[in-house]
Each structure stands twice: as structure tokens, then as C-alpha cells.
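So, can you check this one?
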Amino acid sequence: MLDKLLDGITDMDFSHDNPMWRYYQLTEDELKRYGLDSLTEYLPDNATGNRDVGNFDSETGWMRFGAKHNDIYPIIGDMIRWKLRLPNRHESRL
């Protein structure tokens, strides 16, 4: 699994305009258009915790991540796990 992470991380799109970072700002149609509709399986339930990852400013093209890093970092990690097809931390392991 570590090799998969290290091999895949170099191909990740960490740019500001990556729609994955804007997941919570996108409509269902936009999620489908960007191929993000299955990302929801990797993210925590919306009913718990802070889901304000940040805000994308379309004028500047910048994604500004929020200040509540204890809530945001795990979600960014979930997004990276999804993109690299790593195990989902929310699935029960028996």
C-alpha cells in the first residue's frame, strides 16, 4: 500500500483548480461531470463534524482551505485515498 501511495502521489493534481477540492461546493450534476460522484463513499457523513473545507474563488482561481485543520486534514486525506484507490478508512474491516 505504501508503494501505491508513493507511486500515485506524484501524479496527483494538487492545483487550486482541481474540482476535487471543491467537492462540497459542487452540485450533483457537477460532481457527475467531474467524475467525483463516487467520492462520497470515501468522505465522512455530512451529519457529523465540520465540512467547510474551504472556498474556491473563481475570480482568482485559488482554493483557500479553511482554518479548522483538525476537521479539514482528514477530509483531504480521504480525497487523496479515493483518487489513488487506496483503502477507504470508513469501511469496516473484519
Remarks:
- Residues 32 and 38 are 9 Å apart (CA to CA).
- Strands lie at 54-57, 62-65.
- The chain has a mean pLDDT of 90.
